[in-house]
Amino acid sequence: MAQLARVSLREWWTLSRQLCVLAILAMLSGGMGVGGLPQAGTAQAARLEGQRFDDTVVLADRTLRLNGLGLRGVAWLKAFVAGLYLAAPSRDAGQVLAMPGPKRLRLKLMLEVSSKEFSKAFSKGVRKNEPDNVQAQLASRMAVFIATVDAMGTIRKGDAIDLDYVPGKGMQMKWNNKVLGPVIEGEDFYRAILKIFIGERPVDKRMKEGLLSGGSTP
């Protein structure tokens, strides 16, 4: 009986992990999701689902302010909270995408996920938001980015991923404040990444609304 219980528990654990992986894929690749806005009040303005985001960050000698927060989740699983930092507040996606100056997109993971599944979600997001000719222009740089993400291995709960854009240089990825991979040149590349979150076909419309709250509270 004890052996049967151990086997049953092992099978239950395996099934649970498989279901979690399927749910994660749905969340990252455009399945059901939940978006959110920062909570009201100054003390809670940079918190969502227990994830704390600084009100401001300094990037390329510029002070960027938190424009909004959004949750990516499905059912009882919560994948990550995203925070968008800009030099000036905005509620308009087109304005954000065209806005000059540095930008930061920060993701705080709320569960464990394979980096290869993460990279697949980025690839799918770019395909959904960019026409074929733009995808062709981005292809070689996208390959570098995907290779950088794939090399991460396992991304764990509590990890923070920063996608920083610095004018004249490009996008630099950081994992728990550690620089990963080379700088990927081109404002067009960073714009393509941002479109996954705030473009016309975002991975989650409610998360897009949260990121574009303009730094205000509901």
Keywords:
218 residues; alpha+beta; seven-stranded antiparallel β-sheet; two-stranded antiparallel sheet; globular; disordered N terminus
Topology overview:
Layout: H1 2-29, E1 47-48, E2 51-52, E3 56-59, E4 62-74, E5 77-86, H2 93-98, E6 103-109, E7 113-114, H3 115-129, H4 132-150, E8 154-155, E9 160-166, E10 170-175, E11 178-184, H5 187-198, H6 205-211
Antiparallel strand pairs: 1-2, 3-4, 4-5, 5-6, 6-9, 7-8, 9-10, 10-11
Helix pairs in contact: 3-4, 3-5
Give a written overview of the molecule.
This protein has 218 residues and is an alpha+beta fold. The strands form 3 sheets. It has a 7-stranded antiparallel beta sheet, with helices on both faces. A two-stranded antiparallel ribbon has the order 1-2. A two-stranded antiparallel ribbon has the order 7-8. Helices cover 40% and strands 28% of the residues. The protein is built from 6 helices and 11 strands. The chain is globular. The N terminus is likely disordered. α3 packs antiparallel against α4 and α3 packs across α5.
Short description:
This protein has helices at residues 2-29, 93-98, 115-129, 132-150, 187-198, 205-211, and strands spanning 47-48, 51-52, 56-59, 62-74, 77-86, 103-109, 113-114, 154-155, 160-166, 170-175, 178-184. By secondary structure, it is an alpha+beta fold.
